[in-house]
Amino acid sequence: MAKLFVFSLCLLLIINCSLGSRQQFQQQNECQFNQLQSREPDNQIQSEAGLTESWNPNDQQFQCAGVAMVRRTIQPNGLHLPSFLNSPQLIYIVQGRGVLGVAFPGCPETFEDSQDRQFQHQQQFQPFQPSRRHGGQGQQQQQSEENQDRHQKVRHIREGDIIALPAGVAYWSYNNGNQDLVAISLLDFSNEQNQLDQQPRRFYLAGNPQDEFSQQQGQRYQQGRQQQQQGRQQQQQGQGGQQERGQQGRRGQQQQGGNGKNLFAGFDTQMLAQALNVDEEIVNRLQGRNDDRNEIVQVQGQLDFVSPFSQGEQEGRRQMGGGGRANGLEETFCSMRLKENIRDPSNADFYSPQAGRVSVVNSGTLPILSALRLSAEHGVLYNNAIYSPYWNLNANELVYVIRGNARVQVVNENGDAILDDQVNEGQVFLIPQNHAVITQAGNQGFEYISFRTNDLALINTMAGRTAVLRAIPEDVLRNAFQIDRQQVRDLKNNRQETRVLSASSSSSRRPWSIMA
Amino acid sequence: MAKLFVFSLCLLLIINCSLGSRQQFQQQNECQFNQLQSREPDNQIQSEAGLTESWNPNDQQFQCAGVAMVRRTIQPNGLHLPSFLNSPQLIYIVQGRGVLGVAFPGCPETFEDSQDRQFQHQQQFQPFQPSRRHGGQGQQQQQSEENQDRHQKVRHIREGDIIALPAGVAYWSYNNGNQDLVAISLLDFSNEQNQLDQQPRRFYLAGNPQDEFSQQQGQRYQQGRQQQQQGRQQQQQGQGGQQERGQQGRRGQQQQGGNGKNLFAGFDTQMLAQALNVDEEIVNRLQGRNDDRNEIVQVQGQLDFVSPFSQGEQEGRRQMGGGGRANGLEETFCSMRLKENIRDPSNADFYSPQAGRVSVVNSGTLPILSALRLSAEHGVLYNNAIYSPYWNLNANELVYVIRGNARVQVVNENGDAILDDQVNEGQVFLIPQNHAVITQAGNQGFEYISFRTNDLALINTMAGRTAVLRAIPEDVLRNAFQIDRQQVRDLKNNRQETRVLSASSSSSRRPWSIMA
Amino acid sequence: MAKLFVFSLCLLLIINCSLGSRQQFQQQNECQFNQLQSREPDNQIQSEAGLTESWNPNDQQFQCAGVAMVRRTIQPNGLHLPSFLNSPQLIYIVQGRGVLGVAFPGCPETFEDSQDRQFQHQQQFQPFQPSRRHGGQGQQQQQSEENQDRHQKVRHIREGDIIALPAGVAYWSYNNGNQDLVAISLLDFSNEQNQLDQQPRRFYLAGNPQDEFSQQQGQRYQQGRQQQQQGRQQQQQGQGGQQERGQQGRRGQQQQGGNGKNLFAGFDTQMLAQALNVDEEIVNRLQGRNDDRNEIVQVQGQLDFVSPFSQGEQEGRRQMGGGGRANGLEETFCSMRLKENIRDPSNADFYSPQAGRVSVVNSGTLPILSALRLSAEHGVLYNNAIYSPYWNLNANELVYVIRGNARVQVVNENGDAILDDQVNEGQVFLIPQNHAVITQAGNQGFEYISFRTNDLALINTMAGRTAVLRAIPEDVLRNAFQIDRQQVRDLKNNRQETRVLSASSSSSRRPWSIMA
């Protein structure tokens, strides 16, 4: 038992150490801005069954933070092809539900199908079926191995999940719900897991997808918009419309009719056939020749795989994991927990019935984040509520607006407001390290997800019960601000809330005026 | 008990991990110098009650090491306004004594006043009073909470202290002594705690201070010198002279009459008033409008705050802490030890009655340094004593001359002396990693403080009992240097001291000539 | 006992922490290549008793990975002068055997000679003698200390050893065998142990050596070739030929007749004589005046030093260390294990009787690598065998071809083969992080050593029993590649080997056709 513990710990450490070891090729002097902006994505790629939108990673804000951001919309029954990145990634599920498959190198295929697939084959286009049924048929073990499918663990994802993926780890995702599956991702390419240069790079294992960080956004954007409309109309694989899409945005159009843009595509067909010990015909398909579906493809029928399909069980496991069992024994390299629902109100870390709630997922909550050196915060501010002014001690922060809007001000070391704007749904803005920020929700309230480039990010608030001013003696404040003792006490005591502050139209000076 | 231990350890780890996680935006090719120089500060800012001098951070030496240096002089009863940096900082107290307040985010206000402040108010301008008296009046607990002051721990600092501060943590300091409080600081902006670009940045929480790293030093320097003279004459708040100062060096003079240069200044006054739930009048003071006192202000009367004022107790605690009790139980995030007296002769790590002494403070001595990845060394060389030639294995080193002077030679990989100069009191010079250095004190001796960019910096000496030559077999040295066996033995054995070598005018070959 | 353990652990941690703390001055945008190349060294320096060849560190491939590579040939009885680097280093012994001396700062001289050296002196030129004989004469302790030699541990090295050296640690090596000692080194100057800029720098402690990373390779290379021929003919110290060499390639020829290019050379002679307490005559030799032997010198007679000369014992120790005793108790800072034989077939990690074998040395095998953040892999592919296509998740990889040749293809994120070439003995090529690579041995087989810039580097194979495709459900692959179920099964199951795949000329589809 003790041995097992040590072994598991060892495996756990491997991913911590091996995936978290160095940081390279960093950019310079990119934080000298006089002005920040809240931005919408400026590039998009239409796929057969979805849409990929990205923010220009060469924008000064993203260069300063060393990150890139991508929003991906997968239509029902759409499959995002297996790929990996040169950076760790945090994904927030904005809407919908789906499944996520992650292929850790060298880990066993723990999801095993013991059912007669020949039987299934006849009903290939049947809807997705929970394999609890499979479980009940475990006695049919006498089949040959070739008739079974085995694969690594598959994870169910849903709105409000934060998903953490290390650099270089291949994953795929599939929308098995009824509405679009929308995800917003932060790619931290200045992370030490990236030993290439300061460019986000996605490596596909299948298909012939476009580069989602391509700089040719200009005219393509408008076309993309139109295409999206078309795409939604032609949800079934309409050859004509897609041919058109395929031709428009393709970088290196000379290659058409040639190989695709995935990792198999660059290998010599014969050598690869020999390595895989398969026909060259299969290799041609691997290499994505003439595949114009782009990175999100329409599944024929519905995707069938082995899975204990039960959202309830998933949740239960999480509860237990959080209750003190995350001891390294259950979380090895191969079964490591990769996600956490950050939107569940019952997990809120800060809550005010008048003002809203805030939840944080960091390496204390989700241990893999210590290897990724990233964390996330989700918040809901009620109408006109204020998020206490604060600064990040040890992280840059990128905020994506999920719903509603807010007025945001960011202040630099010269006391200048370098961002003073209304931020709206679907926009992203940067709060650089050490800069002060204040946020006031609009009339419809404000919901956001923010990504921080530190797994144990710290903030210091400038108003409220835990504010920096309360840590400082009265006499220091009195002399610093040239105010009298009563004014100091107002400053220290008039707000008894912590992070989310209720809107109070009156600037009353008495603390009890706002106390619950 | 065990639980408490784990909890404390956890808190301790938080600051280690969260504040020590990444390193970004680093400069390039900046260590290609043919010549190093020992430098005095080339920029200065006069404040109401003190002087800030900085070395140009764009100087090639500082760029190579990725650091900046600042010397600050706080006059008696002067208060350095609360601020924080985008980098970790090591401060050495060159002269004087004072108090330091550090505001850790989310930590409780553990210094509580239970005395009737109304009573105190009448005698507001009484001299600083040790609150041991307060302690004796603890029975007066019946007062309302509004009449008490609470704040976070306040630390007493004195000549010879090394103080370690993480990036982003706000602090203030106050000179409660009778002479100027002088401090020299190293700011390590290439540290992974800084995720902004390679510029030192200071963020103030009060006042309207000038940028101490501004590049407009040229003509201002001379003016500053004159101002300093003026400043000393006008130690009491002379309106005229300060107005003049305020107008001269201010970057962005258009803003005069507008807001100050602190973090509150950039926020919308109304929104901030609402967040703090105070009058806009108070917010105006927070925003530093028309405050021309700069960053070190004169305290009206003397500063009064809760403190167990007893230098003796402080020392006692340190002794105990060093004696094996630094077990993580007493050192949580909030009560973490931030200072260590490096000048106390009784703490010397290397000592020769003939030559001098050397003390080191690293993460073994002061655990927070493991998060800051910095360490310090203090040394006193008697007249003409030699610091054994050595190289730093894993750190750059910046040396500040406290008293006296020395001849210093720094040698690069081509065998060229890139520094060969006399260094004098108040100057700073760089010893780059792996470069060899030899130092010989002048006739008045030599006292220095050196900062190294590694929390467990290692050096290898080239002379003395622990020298690299002693580690190598005779025959290797004989062939490497083409000398005979007796010469090798002289080389290995003629110096029995370790780091500080006594001056011996004769080059006697016999070891006993220098042995004690 | 427990105390001893804690102390040793502490020492162990020191090297981990102190030598592994920061990373600085990194280059930018250097991984944007359309083409990689397999390269031979493009610079060489002829020494008295050997040859130093280096790859241009400014080549884009090396800049991308932030590394440099050097191959050094030491002739029998040649001594590579003591030196250290500004980066950690992994050395692979390609051929021959020798001894390695490493001088850790502050560590005791644990190899002690108790023999009468006067007696030895008479037979000074006797061949290298194992000092087991010395051990038998331990009773002669009555001699004066001056007649004994003491030094730090000396390590025996031989073909197939991987040697790990931290930045700044001085070492020397000596060929005590009968054939040339050939070593290939990786210098990771983008490692956090290097706080200087992005240039490899070697600092010598003796002699007057040329800069092995000098950029003046052009015409010197051909001259070097000729010189090598000459050098081999003039193995005994031929004054004429060496004078010529000394004059040709010397950077800064003005210095000739002046000091050498070692660290002692730049110091003032008198000051250094005083520090060492020796004659200036000795100092002149230390400073390498008029030494034209370059960095590898011919030993007069044979090198004599204290050593328990027994390859067998060394091996035995290793076996025990690997068997569970690496507990920090035996491996302190001073006695840390620095090498591991990676070529020993009995240590292979992957083996196929038909295809070849692969061994890995990482921080699990050799703990010091966790401080260096490097690892190595050695492989032997039989003729026409294939190394499974794969990508590195978290490391760049540099491969040196030891013997034979292979066809190699490296594919980038656009599906383009940026390397598609035959690689030959003595060449180096880069496999950038996340890029896919396939290797097929030529008719004579293929032996290589590869260095990875991560101490726990992970790869994901694209063919074989542990391939990424086996981790993914059938239906996902079927839709991703647009193939039928039987083709998916062929893809997943037709190769049952893992990393090294046997050559199979037929592209048979049945798994049993290749199973053993």
TrEMBL record, chains A, B, C:
Residues 33-284, 340-489 form the Cupin type-1 domain. Keywords: Disulfide bond, Seed storage protein, Signal, Storage protein. SUPFAM superfamilies: RmlC-like cupins (SSF51182). GO terms for biological process: protein hexamerization; seed development. Seed storage protein. The keyword Signal applies. It holds the Pfam family Cupin_1. Hexamer of two trimers; each subunit is composed of an acidic and a basic chain derived from a single precursor and linked by a disulfide bond. This is 11S seed storage protein. GO terms for cellular component: extraorganismal space. Residues 1-20 form the signal peptide. Belongs to the 11S seed storage protein (globulins) family. It comes from Malus domestica. Residues 120-130, 215-237, 244-254 have a biased composition (Low complexity). One of its GO terms (molecular function) is nutrient reservoir activity. Residues 112-154, 212-264 are annotated as: Disordered.
